[in-house]
Amino acid sequence: MSTVADKLAKKSTRKTGGKQVRLRLVYVDFWSAVKLSFLGAVALAIVTMVSFFLIFMVLQATQVLAQASDFLDTITDGAINLQSLIGLPQVMAFGAVVSILNLIVFTVLGAVVAGIYNLAVKVTGGLLVGFMSN
Asked: Any residues with CB less than 8 A from the CB of 107 and at least 6 apart, and which?
């Protein structure tokens, strides 16, 4: 005789197939694209600043900057002192400028790509995406 527990055990071992749905992406919200690209640009700016710092510290620890400064002194007869031109404040300021420019360009590029996609959807009909429920 079959009990309720046996029926529940049979149901739990059986795999249920997920329902597949195909949807068409026909619009990308402009402000969502701007916010997402800005967030990505902030992450890229942080990575840029940290990498500038680490590269400078590695070059300083391995004495590459000192050797380059000595080489430049022999070529220019001491007219240019590389170590006074390239210090940590100068490198970090340059990294900040690069990060800010990247932030602006990346954010604007995200907005432009969203606008171009929304215009291209009128011609192509959108991007067909498949989803599956569990």
From this structure: 34, 37, 38, 41
In the chain, DSSP finds a helix count (H) and a strand count (E) of: 5, 2
Bridge partner list, 84: none
For the whole model, what pTM was predicted?
Answer: 0.72
The whole-angstrom separation of Cα 124 and Cα 122 is 6
Phi, psi at 29, each rounded to 5°: -65, 130
Q: How far apart are the first and last CA of the chain?
A: 33
Strand partners, 23: 129
Q: What distance in Å separates the CA atoms of residue 30 and residue 111, rounded to the nearest whole number?
A: 6
What is the full per-residue pLDDT of the chain (134 aa) written as tens digits?
556 666 656 665 555 567 888 889 899 999 999 999 999 999 999 999 999 999 999 999 998 888 888 888 888 887 787 877 888 999 999 999 999 999 999 999 999 999 999 999 999 988 888 888 76
Report phi then psi at 22, rounded to 5. -110, 120
Burial class, 22, CB count within 10 angstroms (exposed 0-12 / middle 13-18 / buried 19+):
exposed
